User: Fold this.
Amino acid sequence: MKTNAGNLKKGEFVYHMGEIWQVQKADFYSPGKGSALMKARIKNILSGKNIEYAYKSNEQVEVVDVESIEMQYLYKDSENLFYMDERTYNQYSLPISAVGDVHRFFKEGDKMYVYMHDDKPLTIRPPMSVKLKVIEAEDADKGNTVTGAKKSVTVETGVTVLVPLFVKVGETISINPETGEYTGRV
Amino acid sequence: MKIQTHLENLENYRSYLAIEEITHEFFRKRKYLRMDLPVLSPSLIPESYLEVFKTEFNYFQKKESLYLTPSPELFLKRLLTEGIGDCYYLGRAYRNSEPNSSWHLPEFTMLEFYKLGINYLEMADEVLGLLKFIKSRLSRPSFGMPGNKHNDINLKFDKWEKYTIAQAFEKFTGITHEELFEEKLLIEKAKNKGYQTKNATYEDLFSQIMANEIEPRLGRNGRATLLYDYPWELASLAKISADRKTAERCEFYINGLEIGGFCTELNNYKEQEKRFFSEQLKRKQSGLITHTIDKGFIEALKYGLPPVTGAGIGFERLAMTFIGTNSVSELKLISIQ
Assistant:
């Protein structure tokens, strides 16, 4: 399937130099004098490498036909994350490099969408938010009530997150896994 | 689209105001006259790469099309033919069909200025003077620059890193002088590099190669980079050089981003008229809004535009480089997107 580069959107998969890449960002760019371009940041789904590429805005780009399937995250080893399609019980592995840092917020058993192409997983669609329990927190300074003050806590997957001072050990908080930011208490 | 407020950008905004104030001071000191201009115009300079905003003036049954100006050039050049002298405009400009991005908003702030009796390379000194002036004023504690999180403008503005377009293509892309100026050869070369060349024009491929292989490497070695002598196909309103191959036009870059450009202004009205028609034709072919051509502009040129060089700078982009933000929107308190 082909699309006009001007219509490229974040999250889409494209063929570039014979490999599959995911669009991370696509900005329309019109030089002072000259033809309009679509400047995209694309990520190689195998190596996780990001590059910038400017398409002519009217250029035809080959888009990869993908299907997103909800799967269960099982576990990880040093290089891969393992997922299971609960309808078929088929298991798939994805290199950590393809998923990126966002995986540090995943708990075994979490459900999320995996992008599939020709029965091969490409990468995951990161959930909008994850819910994780706080397992370690430093005590906040009692006198420090300035709005916006933050402290760092460790959540059950071992990652540290900046949270408002009132968050305590044992509480479950929601986090945007893409930015690593606290978004609220659950 | 929605209106959103961004009070979190207050410090950046204050820094932006400081840079604005310093810019006015620079032009005041150099005796440029500040111009307050309309942003609605009944006719425009046709430019094939810009889409415009169209609106209508209504009075009973009488309707007249008006357009938001994509640049103040049509007003300023009229005044220049009548003897206004060195002048500058710092205000709004509008470009349609160019969505919000890190570097651009459809409604943006343009700094445009004209100086009589100098050519494009002499204008380069004037622009460098402005950059130097802003940097030195900002370092004064009175400006404070509270929003300058990355107060590391390590750029020196003592001189430019300079390349002609031909030198830049040779150095960064391996495309030779001969290939650059020969449409067929450039298209062939682009094809070999893996670019899509089907239905692509010379200008399309020139821009794409620039954006992929040259621009990201400009303005990164501690100095702003100046590119000059563009192929005549990209001349727009610039004067053609004596070699007939290039136009007296410059662009400058900081951190891989095009900040502004300037050119020795074309003052041959016949040539200008010719370009108007070809640009208008291209607009029609690309399905852009057909606006009224500013014939008065040609009339003004006929009367006589003195030798003059004009510069246009994306003011938010300029401010971004001094404040250290990654996007134009981080300077704004209100966004519409």
Notes: The first strand of chain B starts at residue 3 and ends at 5. Confidence is low (pLDDT under 50) at residues 146-151 of chain B.
